[in-house]
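BUG: 3D viewer hangs when loading the predicted structure for this chain

Environment: internal workstation, default settings.
Expected: structure renders.
Actual: progress bar stalls at 90%.

Input used:
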Amino acid sequence: MSTPTTEEAAGLVLLGVRHHGPGSARAVGAALEAYRPEVVLIEGPPEADALTALAADPAMRPPVALLAHVTDDPARAGFWPFAEFSPEWVAMRWAAKAGVEVRFIDLPAANTLAMRAVAEEADAPGGPDEADAPGEAEEADEPDEAAAAVRVDPLAVLAETAGYDDPERWWEDAVEHQGEDADALAPFEALAEAMAAIRERYGDGGHSQDPLREAHMRLRMREARRAHGRTAVVCGAWHVPALGVRTTAAADRQLLKGLPKAKVETTWVPWTHRRLARASGYGAGIDSPGWYGHLFAAPDRPVTRWMTKVAGLLREEDFPVSSAHVIEAVRLADTLAVMRGRPLAGLGETTDAVRAVMCDGSDVPLALIQDRLVVGDVLGEVPPEAPAVPLARDLAREQRRLRLKPEALERELELDLRKDTDAARSRLLHRLRLLGIDWGEPAAGRDGKGTFRETWRLRWEPELAIRVAEAGIWGTTVEAAATARAEDQAVHASALAEVTAVAERCLLAALSDALPIVMRVLADRAALDADVSHLAAALPALVRAVRYGDVRGTDSAALARVAEGLARRICVGFPPACVGLDADGAAALRTHLDAVHRAIALLPPPPRPADAGPVVGDPSLVAGRSAGAGGAGRPEAVPIADEDGPSAAGALAGGPSPVAGQPAGAGAAGAGGTVAASVPGDARGAVDPGGATGGQPDDLRERWAGMLRALAERDGAIPGLLRGAAARLLLDDGRLAAEEVARLMGLALSPGTGPLEAAGWVEGFLAGGGMLLVHDERLLGLVDGWLAGVPGEAFTDVLPLLRRTFAEFEPGVRRSVGELVRRGPTAAGRRRDTTAEAGLPGFGAGIDQPRARAALRTVRLLLGATTTSDLSDLDLDPDAPDLDPDLDRDLDRGPHPGPHPGPYPGRDRISGPGRAVRDPAHPAHPAHHLGERHDA
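Structure tokens produced before the viewer hung:
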């Protein structure tokens, strides 16, 4: 078998390399400079020959990749990546500088991509993938004697032969850390001999397409040698023995005869270090692209320079790293290399040194170093002159105009839609998402949920270049392509919800040309679809579209009319749809119930005449709580619903809120008792929760509230999950009195109701949050009483439902409920309540005796009270247990001796009950007796 030295006499030198190896890259540069060939042949697709000149463009910054895709099907594509430390890239740059022609000699992408399609259709393994890019030989598992089914990793074989268990470590010691050889071709000759020995044993090593690829390489080599003189071939070291074999051109052409072909297009696209990593699935990947890039860029003192980079990164993340840390880490890494018998400290030694010196033995900062430095987040750049589809060029123009530079590292982008530039950025990102180019993903903002702000997470991946090429069939500009794509999606949508989603995205992307077609399809689908679940699934997106249309200044009046029509149909059809559902159906419809409730709250109210009276339920008219419902008659603003959702403040404050035209004393009877009587069975009429509409125009919110009330009042024909959820929504909107809630819960949890049905009601009612049980002791008492009465044989059936319900509560809420239940019910006689609720048993009605006594000990210490009798005005149970009896006895001995008569100089000490605490410096201040009770 020929070697590079023997072939040199015939005007050919074979430079076998490791793809993306910095040592090989430096060696290739030295060999080309010494050999001075007239043509350079590189492993890669021949269709890219015309693109090699761009490698010398100053605007071309690796890592980059050759992208080849089928013209009619851009999704069928392949990449050939190059980094700054790739030997092939060094060869291209040398050839451009020396004025030497460069050619690619691998199997054409037209054959490779066509063969992949055939393999996929036949569902046969072994179809080409990224591993067919340069460096296929470097991707593999362990060797196999049969060499038929398992792909051989030649580096692993050589490392194992040398006594190494890590191929990367062996490569560093054998190649990367060795000095330059006097003979520039000597390293390639040694590597070729090693590969020849491996291939003599393993054959093609399970790389089934290698004979085809190598046959094509030999044909291209013959052509180059006939056209030029001295020829240098830069290819994977695995292929060198096969390329040196003496074969005939006829035999090679016979191997390639009949291969399928496809029409392809090629271009340069940006690549990332992260995509060069083996973990990304790239066949020729390496474990540490960032580390290899550092070794190539800093051949002198690489360890010192690496430690400086690490220290800089840690300082950016607020780790206290000084110059002394860098010095000690370098010393430790060098010492570890000597102890381990390595010629130079490698990545393992530097990592151990950083962990010990800079990270205090922690692996947490090392994860950051691994991600940001060892792998890296570098994104390459391609000059504008590179071939591209028109859509890609328009996208590049938009990115430059809006100053949105693609970056490999994920970052957040906050947009203020009131600013023209940010609004244009938002439109671009939404249009790209409509085209399936997910450069940005919407994220929850940190500054609230205002509709004029958006937060995006941006991250450019190389695969997005394929998505751009695919989307090119829809148009030559981003706007035109997104418009055509939206129209096509609307026409071919299979469900009404999909059409409404397209309409929403059209508004977000400001695609005014697509809206007429989308709206026509939406109106037709909505008129024909009678399934309530489909209507309910479609309404939220439609309402959001109306809302965003207002914010972005687009006309959404047609959408508002369609949304209102859908909402009215839902109000009519929802109750019948709830009858006779099983558990899964009820759970699905409950999700729709919550979503429609939020959507209707966001719909703008219908226009009303200027002389019309107040609207029932208007939050601006709610002035306070009614005394009859347990309130103290103090004015208090109680919100009904805000932009972000319903409010439970009114209900939790103690009762319903009076509305316009309703006397304050009629809270319980008016707000709690008249709605059910006034709601027709089909919930089509206007609902008046206060009995004071007085001929108000029909309001969609009132229709929905009437439907919810009818749902909550229905019998067992409707699942308890839905009835409980409806009651909770009414309560959160302030449309249901606390007494009425207790009545509905009492009915739902009565002995006549089955345990599973009752548990479903509890789950539906408490899904909005468990704080209601903490604040309303009667409801907790009802739940506790029902649970205590569940028969033993039925308890295991309701337990999963209850566990799921309470598991959704916040930990603090669960802890508070558990504390109330642990304390147990308190009799009405022990409570201070003077309201109508005082006669009802409940939980936590009185003072928490142990906690109160613990607080009093601190008060006695601060004010100088010597005995418990000094605080006798407080209503405490003398038989209640203490949280800490030892501390109480210590404090009962009196205050600690000191130079002052009390802890506050100049103030009187309390010596008996009812004594005032006065500050002599402020005699006008009134005395406050500890026994008094002051309302906040």
